[in-house]
Each structure stands twice: as structure tokens, then as C-alpha cells.
Amino acid sequence: MSGRRLELRGMQDSLEASEAQRRQIEAEMASIRNDRGKLEAALLDMTRSVGATEAKVGEAEGRLDALLGSEDAIRRSLTSRRSVIAEVLAALQRMGRKPPPALLVAPEDMLQAIRTSMLLGSVLPEMRAETEALAADLSDLLQLRQSIAAERDALSGDAAKLRADRQHLAALIEARQSALSAAEQALGAERDRALDLAKQAATLKDLIARMESEVAAAARGAEAARRADEARKNAQEATPPDARRKTALAPFKDPARLAPATVFAETKGLLPLPVAGTLQRGFGAPDSFGGAEKGMLIATRTEAIVASPCDGWVAFAGPYRSYGQLLIVNAGQGYYIILAGMDRINVNVGQFILAGEPVAVMGDGSAKTAAAIAIGAAQPILYIEFRKDGAAIDPGPWWAKPELQKVRG
């Protein structure tokens, strides 16, 4: 009964902590809901925190798998030598219980003892080696178990932080979208129109063209991108070269910006990867159909947060053929970023999004996209493609170098 009470008390404490956290998040939302700059800054910070924790959890899981593999190897080694160890221990026990016979009283017994000693002497070096190996293995096994326990404790703490951060991020995303979705009925009609176009469009190029000509929100985004390109061009002509270089080196500094701070072509080597994971196939690698890969495939954690790699306007958001959930971002100057394979998207067509801003969530890998099937992946796969004037280009030069090293695992 006392155990049951302790269990119920633990559940109550957990619920109280969750309720306190919820109230704290609601208070924060109330304070920043009407301040777009603060809301975007909080979104970017929390997305970075979630991404870092996801990467940390993935690394801890990798270390734990390696430790468990080492433990299994030592266990198998000990099991394989069990018969030899048993024979050695039995021989030592017999020697301890039966002292050597007297030389003159029973010479035949002494002869047998000598012969046994000679035989045992030939075994002793091997026995010593086996004993030393056994002691080393047992010591390693003890240290491994301690390391496994420590990794599990750390992993449990990181997993709890990840859950809390994801809850916080979900509240921030809801606050962002509610502030943007005043005309929800019109938005719903445009979403239905976008889904109809997705069924009709045979290619991504066709889908983009149809969206930006037949869906008002996408058309507004395309027009905003065109105006931003023109305004930036005029501003650059009037800006000294030193000031232009300074802006190009810090294009994502202002979280309240409503247009890209610099042209997409000048962000090479600066873009953050949209998700933490392991690179499975890169641009230009042989695909499964006799051609070359037009994008890159990254294996992610279950329910990993996907962030936009760049500033831009959402040209399409929704399911499309074998791509799964598809997001297309108009980055300006004829550049488009394509993200596919997510479980759900949390931005709307026509919406301006920032580099590093959360835009989607991965699934658990059960819904198979063409990209996942092509490489036989069991885990979720994010497909990333960059396009310039309708043609696929290598995204490699755009990624920040440390980020690219991380994604390679």
C-alpha cells in the first residue's frame, strides 16, 4: 500500500510540475504575443535549443549502443571460455584438497603425482594467461556497466529536457500562427486550392508556377520576393562596399525583419542545416533509378524539429505525390528551397519565414516517402533540394561548414 501511495505521489508531483510549466509558458506567450520581434527571437532560440538537445540525445544513444555492444562482446568471450576456466579451477581445488604423497611410503602415488605435476606444468602458462584475461575482462565489464548506468542517467535527463523544450516550442509556434491567421476562413479556402493544384501538377516546377499564379497567398509571397529583390538591388547600389560586406556576414541578425537582409546568393557558407541527423546521400550521388540525386537525404530522429535553412516566402505547404509533406520556400532571385518527407508542416502559404525558424516536424519513419524507400531507410528521411530558375543545384556551398560536419555524423 505504501508503495502505491509513493507511486501516486510521484504522478501527482509530475502533474504539478507540468501544470507549473504550462502556466509559465502561457505567461511568456501573453507577454510576447503582440511583439513580433520578441516572438521570432524566442522561436529561433528555442529551435536552436531543441536542435542541440536532439543532437546531444543522438550522440548519447550512439555511445550507449557502443557500450552495450562492448558488454555483449565481453559476455560472449567469457561464455566461450567457461569450460576452460572450469577445468583450471577444478584442478586447483583438487590440488588443495589432496597434498603430495610421501616419497618412500607410496612411490607409485608419487610417480602419478609427478606425472600429474608435469602435465599441469605444461598447462600453467595457459592457465595464467586465461586467468589474467579473465580478470581484465571482468574489470572491463564492471567499468562498462558503470559507464552504461551514467549514460542512461544522462540520456534520461536530456530526453526530459527535449520533451519540455518541444512543449515550449509548440506553444511558441501556436502563438506565431494565431497572430498570422486572422482570416482563417480565406486561408482554409486557399489551402484547399493548393491541395487541388498539387494533385494536378506533374512536376515541382509546374507546382511552383501554378501556386504563384493561381493561389493568392503564394502570389503575394512571390510579389513580395520580387519587390524585396528590387529594393535590395537599389539599396546596394547606394550602399558603400564595406557596409554591404558587413550585412552579408550577418544576414540573420534582426529577428523582426520582414524580408531577407541580403540576397540568397551572398549567403553561401552561412546557412544552417534544417535538421540534425546523418547524411545518407548527397547531391549528385547515384540514385536508385540510374540517374543522379538532385538533392540530399538526411536521416533524422523521430519527431525531429525541421527549421527553415533560409529567409523566404512559403510557396507551397502540403502533401505532394511520393514526397510526403512538402514545403517550398521562395528565397528570391529565382532560388527555391524544397524540403520533403516531414510528418506535419506548421507554416502557411505566403508566410515570410526566417532562417532557423521551425517550419515542420518529422514523423517516426512509418510513412514511407520515395526518398526513404530508395535507400531502404527505417528512420525518418528529410529530402532537401535547392533550385535556381527551375534547375536543381548543389546545396553544399551554402551550408555553414561546422553544420555540414555535424550532419555527417
UniProtKB/TrEMBL annotation:
Residues 226-235 have a biased composition (Basic and acidic residues). The lineage of its organism: Bacteria, Pseudomonadati, Pseudomonadota, Alphaproteobacteria, Hyphomicrobiales. It comes from the Bacteria. Residues 293-395 form the M23ase beta-sheet core domain. Keywords: Coiled coil, Hydrolase, Metal-binding, Metalloprotease, Protease, Zinc. It comes from Methylocapsa polymorpha. Residues 8-42 form a coiled coil. PANTHER family: CELL DIVISION PROTEIN YTFB, PEPTIDASE-RELATED. This is Peptidoglycan DD-metalloendopeptidase family protein. Residues 226-251 are annotated as: Disordered. The keyword Magnesium does not apply. Its cofactor is Zn(2+). It holds the Pfam family Peptidase_M23.
